[in-house]
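Final report, Chapter 2: Outcomes

The project's central promise was a pipeline that accepts a single protein chain and returns its three-dimensional structure in a standardized token representation, suitable for archiving and comparison. That pipeline is now operational. To close this chapter, we reproduce one record exactly as it appears in the project archive, with the input sequence first and the structure output second.
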Amino acid sequence: MSMKSLTKLFLFALSIFVYGCNSLDIKPLDIITDGDILSSDYGIKTYVAGLYRKLPMEDFTYYHGKGWKRDWNIAGDMSGSALTETYSGMAGCDRMEGFEYWPYPEIRDVNHYIKYLETHPEQFSGNQLKELIAEAHFIRAFYYFGLVKRYGGVPIITEEQDVFADPSSLLVSRETEEKVWDFIYSELILAYDMPETSEPGRANRYVAAALMSRAMLYAGSIAKYTSSVDFKGDAYTKNIIGAPASKAQTYFQAAYDAADMIIRQTDKYELYRADADKCANYMNLFLDEASKENIFIRQYSIDSGTESCWDINCVPQSICGSSVCSAYPTMNLIEMFQEIDVIDDNGEPHRYNNLSEPFVDIEPRLKAILYCPGDFWNGNYFDMQKGLYKHFEGLAEPEMNDFEGLRPNFSNLILTNEHTQMYEGKLIIGQAGISTKSQETQTGFYRKKYFDYKASSVGWWTSEHHYIEFRLAEIMLNRAEAAFELGIKIEQAKADIKAIRDRAGAVEIPDAVIDLSVVREERRRELAFENHLLWDLRRWRTAHLELDKTKIYGLYPYYIFDEDKFIFLRQRCPGQREYSFQIKAYYEKLPQKELDKNPNLYPNNPEY
């Protein structure tokens, strides 16, 4: 039974429990026992489906700063990548205090499940018991990873607490961050007892190794780089946040070994190369559920009630008629891939015959993750245009001044919010933007990664494609980064980077220039819009340096009426905000309601 079916089963079971008390054949909730639920394979699968559904996977239901919500506007605010990858009304720096993630009810469910399994061995045969317990340890490790990367040290609870016990016995204290990382490591070692294969959406030995690789890479970075940040307060001096520098190599080695174990399974996992066209290949990578690059996915379907609104929030209203897209790829991200040369040697804007000309030769991978001006989908034209110059002369740089009134050609510029408004028979702005309306691109681009471009139409609650939590490219990047941190297998690490770039259609780079900084840059390119950027900048302890009065830019097309040509100008995004990352944002504040209930959770994290 697939996890998609298990999710449907889980939701159905909940409906029975909630509504079934009207039937004399169904026990009321307060007297449902383990025997009613866990005594059969059917019941165990239902229970486990619920645990999987609540894993902290930052997917199509995740709001950065708000948590997991099944909402129609999720694509407009997805995750911590909203720093420099995307521009929106609320960028990532605005929501760093967190959303009070505290999954101890779920951890209690896992603890209860483990205890049941351990005390009912007669119910299982062969390796079934060992594998189910291993799976439970993986699930528990995943929950703790979601905690430790947000808060540092947290309570480690491995047994179901008795809610009727002396209340003081429930007031647990925070462990050091080091102990939590070590606990996650030990949990995942136990999780290696899972089978080597599993149905889609359910973990196996290599899924556990993928989490080990990601988590231990994070732990190694925390141990190595925390001392570079000027943390203050009791949480730091008592080692509740941070980890000893002496543990960095241990953690990096664990990350390397786990990644290496996966990469060596060449019969199971390989980089996706199904299409000769490298742009199409990269787009299909995120839509092909059977891809051998997938290590762990989460399924979505209308049938199970888990469908999303991802696709409709990736295109402008002019295409779908109704959209609330509000996060757009930035020039800051695009320039991580390559420069878009829109200015000639004299400093004047290049003239173009159409909107697509500047993007003809961009990297296929970049082309695959965003819609550029002049692109098409299903016959629909992405005519992103910001305005119309009646006449334009001179250099580009003065026209990129933050203050419109200081731009020499500003008096010749016509702007509007109305997509049908014309100037002597020519549209002033495109049907796909760009205006001050919040549901149209504010950067000149739209996201394409995970967009189901093969669909004939998009609509509310119709997106059913899966979300990839772990894929081989990330694991190769993990291994390469760990190798450079350890100073081992450097040639292998360089080969990993070159293989990823080759699949992407990127320009080949010489071995001699590949170092740790190049590995980090490649990670940002390959994993763009996959919710890694915030966590990577946090673990590298570089966020306060990179995001220091950071300005966000777009690339804006303008039509020149008297020349019948287009120009492109790199200008600040609307609002012209600057974004800075505060030191305290390396950790989130503990939930106040939990502090109120349990004063032993103090001290809070620095500056909260």
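Archive annotation: The longest strand covers residues 553-560.
This record, like all others produced under the grant, will remain available to the consortium after the project formally closes.
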